[in-house]
Amino acid sequence: MVVDASVWVGRYVPEDVHHAASLSWFSRGPAQQSSLAVPFLALAEVAGAIARRTGHSADAQNAVEHMRAVPGLQMVPLEESLAVQAAQAALSYRLRGADAVYVAVALRLSMPLVTFDNELAERARAAVEVIQPA
């Protein structure tokens, strides 16, 4: 499963509206059901979101270190062919740039996309299976 930054941020920020759902989803062991993947871009997205929301760069750094240590987490580089695929996804589904990268990774790996982002979920469903943790 390709896990969007919204799910990671929910996991690491207790004040996030999706914190409980994210913790619950991760605790159910999605990694045991299938592999997890993110574009390398996720590290910067998660770090930036957490630093902005909490005001503490240490919180963001801890989250990034934890993500990097998740067993079996596949980190996908944004090389040229994936970037072109993401650009096509952005054009086809009217996605933001970073969101298009997640969709391109999901397409490339034939995996569902996990997100709390309603707009991304709605638009990405035309291309990939979308899971919104409950």
Tell me about this structure.
α4 runs antiparallel to α5 (57-68). The strands form 2 sheets. Strands 1-4-5 form a 3-stranded parallel β-sheet. The longest helix is centred in the middle third of the chain and has 14 residues, at 41-54. It contains 8 helices and 5 strands, in the order βαααβααβααβαβ. The radius of gyration is 14 Å and the shape is globular. α8 (118-124) links the parallel β4 (113-114) and β5 (130-131). The protein has helices at 5-12, 19-27, 30-33, 41-54, 57-68, 80-93, 97-109, 118-124, and strands at residues 2-3, 37-39, 74-76, 113-114, 130-131. With 134 residues, the protein is mainly alpha-helical. The chain has one domain: 5'-nuclease (Rossmann fold), CATH 3.40.50.1010.
Task: Compile the SSE list and pairings.
Layout (H helix, E strand, L loop, with lengths): L1 E2 L1 H8 L6 H9 L2 H4 L3 E3 L1 H14 L2 H12 L5 E3 L3 H14 L3 H13 L3 E2 L3 H7 L5 E2 L3
Parallel strand pairs: 1-4, 2-3, 4-5
Structural class: mainly alpha
SS strand fraction: 5-15%
**Average predicted confidence as pLDDT:** 95
User: What is the CATH topology assignment?
Assistant: Rossmann fold
Number of strands: 5
Helical percentage:
55-70%
Strand order of the largest sheet: 1-4-5
| Distance N to C terminus | 16 Å
- Output the number of helix runs: 8
Notable characteristics:
134 residues, mainly alpha, Rossmann fold, three-stranded parallel sheet, two-stranded parallel ribbon, 5 strands, 9% strand, globular
